[in-house]
Amino acid sequence: MFAEPSPPFSVNGQITSASEMVESIALDTSLPMEPSKVMPRVRTKSGSSDALTGGAQPRGTHRKSEPKKGGGGGKGTWGKPGEQLTVPKVDQADPNFDPEDNITWQVADLDLTPREIVSMVQPALLEYMENGDTEEMIILCRKLNLGDSKHVLVDMTVRLGLDRNNYGRELASKLLASFSSCVVLTDADFKDAFRALLENLYDLKLDAPDAADALAKFIARAVADECIPPAFVLGHPAATGDFPNPIVRACMHKARTLLTLKSGMARLDKVWGVHGQSEPVEDVIAAMVLIIKEYVDSEDAGEAERGLKDLGVPHFHHHFVYEAVYAVLDSNGNHRTSNQISRLLAYFVQAAIITDDQLNTGIRRLFNGLTDIQLDIPRAKPLLQDFLMCGLREQYLSRSLLAEFPMRQQARRRFVSENEGGRVRSTVS
Fold first, then answer.
1. Which of 350, 352, 333, 340 is CA-nearest to residue 297?
2. Could you tell me which residues are beta bridge partners of residue 9?
3. Contact of 271 with 258, CB cutoff 8 Å
């Protein structure tokens, strides 16, 4: 069952093993050998000679793998880094060659249709009307391949603005100006869009009755923002009155009037009015004072309502109450002014335009600042008391609020003269 060990050999009368015999034969120079058969002597690291193997790695020993020339990797590697990404050359003489496998696919960048543009831009445009961030809209529009349908952006923006209040229309005008300044749209795109809107103006009036007036403001504002040249308005046949469509004629005549007014370009920056969301507080206060003055002159409560709503600052309505009552005090108790302001506040409270909380806050501000108001209006205290009684009769002021009226001014302490003993006493002035 077991292999027998190899028998010993006899060399020069001495019995030796096979390995010793091979080594002795290799070292014996007396034996005749052809020059080509002589095994070379190789000096190893240990100093011994390896004449039999010629310096080859002995079987059964391990040797550290070294990378191949050119960085092809060593043991356990699959070639040079990145070789797996290269496509091998196709040999058409190969028996396994298939012509259908040698197809080059290319991505075609097609222009978006107007319907596709609407479906992709409409959600972002609605979000813009909430946050007013023009940068996001510019980035989105630059990513889209709009092609020859860029005018659809103007059409969408104006149509959405017509469905909004003046603040939404102001945002729409700012977005159009950003499209022009960032070179997303050209003046030719704006012209094509406004021409299409003028052609569909009759249909637009069905949804927005003031579409003609609003579109005229959009066009005039676009001229002020350098989106389109003034010649688009001044040279339009409808602007001179020679146009068959009366609605378009009225629209372009309105736009021409806005442009030809004195300092018209500067006024067009406020063509949509003042809006509290984007204007300083001082401008909002000035707009409230103007609404009150116009109401006192015209007694048009509807116009005052539209003006207050357009400001879009329901959290600041308490200041409108403050300014309205202060106008009554400033008129030195004018009976007509007092009745007008009282009716206006009663209308606003009943229509829930001004909440009870905002009304009470505005009245309390007058209570707290009554001392300073008396410096300018000495009779402010009795005048305010008379106005509050009028509000109580109109039933928009509560008795609990009137109970907070400062009937007596808070006592203040002052120093008296030395001849009174230098005492500190409380006086009521």
1. 340
2. 16
3. yes
